[in-house]
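Backbone geometry:
***
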Amino acid sequence: MWGYLMIAPVVIGLAVFYIYPFFDTLVNSFKTIGAFNVSKWCGLANYKKLTTDESLWHTLYNTFRYVIFTVPVTIILSLLLAVLLNTKNLKGRGIYRVIYFLPYVTMATAIAAVWKWMYNGDFGLINYILGLFGIKGQQWVTNPAIAPYSIIVVSIWGSLGYNMIILLAGIQGISPTYYEAAEIDGAGVVAKFFNITLPLVTPSLFFILITGLIGAFQIFDTIFMMIGKNTVVLENTQSVVMYFYRNAFELGNKGYACAIAMLLFVIIMFITLLQMIGQKKWVNYD
């Protein structure tokens, strides 16, 4: 009885904030929900609409582009930072760790506001610095060709600290005897990284890969804060979650929005399942 009492807060929280909303969303995806939440059963109509909605397919393209650019670059840079900050002779390692981790604990709205100012095409800091070197500035968040990659840069910058801490913990968990034996055999820094550090840190890499993919598919706040609702770049930058939000709370198509949410759930579940199956071939738990 005491065991059930101890886990009761977590179970109740999961049931109220995760399990019930999931099934409620699933049921609502088969309905049309109008004003004042008046609903009517429509069967598979919302899902049929998904197949012909060009805006949805374009947002899927935007989201996959965001994921493909953001996740690999973030993991690579985080791993390099973790290795560098694990160097024993590096002075001020603690300060560097705090600096890199600060973006993760800072409110997303504050980060988006600062970067939006830096990206400003008229008086932004980035264009000012480029002007000092005689380089013409760009319209970073108002040019449809550049805006998606501006969002990607912000997301990479904001995710580095968290991934770096996870990887740093994994690297510090590797026994020093492996490196000592490698040094006796004459292995250099590069050889030790690829033959010791990289294989033994794969469990941590797998964790941040899974969480990174899920988080990237659910990107919303950065786009919502940095890109206006009525700008020409919205079509090229909005994600699936952004499209869900617009349908649910701006256009009033709540039933269709639930269908979009279920589609995103299936995509994330399928990719996560592939990762769980594939991790047996490259993750080393020894």
Notes: The mean pLDDT is 90. The beta strands are 31-33, 39-41. The chain is about 75% helix and 0% strand.
